[in-house]
Amino acid sequence: MMPIKTVSCLFPALLLILTILSECAGQSGLGWWDIWQYDGLQGPQYWGKSHSAWLMCSEGKLQSPIDLSAERLLYDPDLQRFEVEAPLRTSGVIQNTGRRVVFSLDRSTPVVRIYSGPLNYRYNLHEIELKFGDDDSHGSEHTVNGKAFPVEVQLTFYNERYGSYDKAEESVQGLVKLGIFVLPWNETSRGLSKLTAIDVVKDIVYRGDEVNVTNFNVKQLLPRTFEYLTYEGSLTIPGCFETVTWIIMNKPLRISRYQLNSLRELVRDYKDDETFRPFQNTFRPLQPLGRRAIRTNVAKRVEDPEFDKACPKSRRQIKYKVNTTP
């Protein structure tokens, strides 16, 4: 058994490390935003203890990501399909930030919007992020019945009534995040290939690298389905604001093995650094669902007028199971 005096020695050491981080941030001009990570003493378990503005990361009750358990799904007959408005061609920059692989739209690009479905307002696209792991057993932030996917694409939108992402992220019904799982396949889905093409990924190997992406049709990134799951949650990065309506598509995209392996070769460090850490496993651990509802519009298709008449959708009790085929 570990002696009590040994435990008492660990606490001052932790305070010392946090103090050093704070002093280094101040001396170098870095803010708290610049020092968080996905592992070590700057990892998710310490986000809520590192900065008062991030307290929600440790004390919030509506945190994300979550496990999408089939047993917890609730069929909502009032959930309609959501709509996405997007020009045929958009342009922007995809960047390796050292913690995130993220695509940001050019300001001159026409607005991409999402509305309807579970949403009461219209939301403008802010960015698209790729989450992935170092092997196929993990990578996505959300899981389905405890199973993770190698990749999760997340499109982040902000409520246009707030005028900007910065104002919306801390405001009620401020954000929408559209999550799409990705599976390895023989080829890559058309929309996703614009972000994961080899000639794109090879130019963002190191932290700070970025490359222009043009002629990108955002709507091609969406799977061909109107089925989705939705719940109220949070950002999965500091400060974990509980202002997000999550929409998870009920159909995955596909990525070629070659492109997936290329993503796994990215590094978290600058090109001139002495050592390189792999850019992998950039996902927050699962958070408790609590009493939240996970609603869905997924319903069994019954082509039987007599059944529909005897049991309308509003009265059906639907049970779900995980489909093991993509």
UniProtKB/TrEMBL annotation:
MF terms in GO: carbonate dehydratase activity; zinc ion binding
Signal peptide per UniProt: 1-26
Record has Signal as a keyword: yes
Superkingdom of origin organism: Eukaryota
Keyword Signal included in the entry's annotation: yes
SMART domains (UniProt xref): Carb_anhydrase (SM01057)
One Gene Ontology biological process: one-carbon metabolic process
InterPro entries: CA_dom, CA_dom_sf, Carbonic_anhydrase_a-class
Alpha-carbonic anhydrase domain sequence ranges: 34-298
Annotated keywords: Signal
Family named by the database record: Belongs to the alpha-carbonic anhydrase family.
Protein name per the record: Carbonic anhydrase-related protein 10-like
